């Protein structure tokens, strides 16, 4: 069986240091945008309490499951850090499929942040010491 080029690529993980911080107003704009672009509603984002996932297409599986949608990348976030109502971006992962799609860490973050007129490069920064050591999504998958 021949491997596709995506299957030969490795995940690209970047720790964002200093971490990017979204102040309250911007965080609300971004979270509302991600909610509006939810994969179950025809969008390409799946936002949870610890990670924002970007897919190539809306979920099309039975009962609202992923179906043929492919995960392109994740943005690991912490809410209420460093202060209440702020959101901190501390790790970004681009999957092999995301790399094939042309995504980079900056492009993935910028896609989520564009509604607020921000880019990853333009975000305020803060040193945050209490970020999880492992990807929370992968920790759940590995612990199943």
Features:
144 residues, alpha+beta, six-stranded antiparallel β-sheet, 27% helix, globular, disordered C terminus, Thioesterase
How is this fold's topology laid out?
Layout: H1 5-8, E1 12-22, H2 24-36, E2 45-47, E3 51-55, E4 71-79, E5 87-94, H3 96-101, H4 105-113, E6 125-126, H5 136-142
Antiparallel strand pairs: 1-5, 1-6, 2-3, 3-4, 4-5
Overview of this protein structure:
With 144 residues, the protein is of the alpha+beta class. The protein has five helices and six strands; from the N terminus they run αβαββββααβα. It is globular and about 40 Å long. The model is unreliable at 139-144 (pLDDT under 50). It comes from Longivirga aurantiaca. This is Thioesterase.
């Amino acid at each position: 069986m021949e491997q596709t080029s995506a299957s030969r690529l490795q995940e690209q993980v970047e720790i964002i240091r200093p971490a990017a911080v979204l102040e309250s107003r911007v965080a609300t704009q971004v979270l509302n945008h991600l909610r509006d672009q939810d994969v179950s509603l025809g969008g390409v984002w799946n936002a949870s309490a610890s990670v924002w996932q970007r897919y190539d297409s809306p979920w099309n599986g039975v009962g609202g499951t992923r179906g043929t949608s492919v995960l392109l990348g994740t943005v690991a976030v912490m809410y209420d850090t460093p202060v209440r109502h702020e959101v901190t971006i501390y790790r970004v992962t681009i999957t092999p499929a995301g790399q094939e799609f042309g995504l980079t860490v900056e492009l993935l973050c910028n896609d989520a942040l564009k509604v607020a007129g921000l880019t990853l490069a333009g975000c305020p920064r803060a040193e945050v010491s209490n970020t999880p050591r492992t990807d929370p999504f992968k920790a759940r998958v590995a612990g199943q």
